[in-house]
UniProtKB/TrEMBL annotation:
Gene source species: Penicillium malachiteum
Residue numbers spanned by region Disordered: 1-37, 58-90
PANTHER family referenced in this protein's UniProt entry, alphabetically: LEYDIG CELL TUMOR 10 KDA PROTEIN HOMOLOG
Pfam families with a match to the protein in the record: DUF2462
Upper lineage: Eukaryota, Fungi, Dikarya, Ascomycota, Pezizomycotina
Name of protein: UPF0390 protein
Family: Belongs to the UPF0390 family.
Transmembrane segments annotated in the record for this chain: none
Ranges of compositional bias, category Basic and acidic residues: 75-90
Amino acid sequence: MAQGQLKKSKPTTATSKRPSASAGKMKPGPRQIAPKKASLVKAAKLTKKLTSGLVAKTERSLAQKAGHLEMLSGGKKDTKGKGKGDKGKK
């Protein structure tokens, strides 16, 4: 036998994987300095208001498309309940 005998490897035991300490923590984002000029404060407020409206509208449309997800409000289940109650009231 020119090659020699095969080396038998020991069976590896499954070790428990410990979650790393940094995996659970979220990295803080970059700090933003609040604007001091009145016009910039007003613009920042308006931007925040418009952004929140867009986010709410997007989530509502996604909930309507998904429908079966209970985590998102505005799905098919929510609209069914509103439709029944609104017909009698005016």
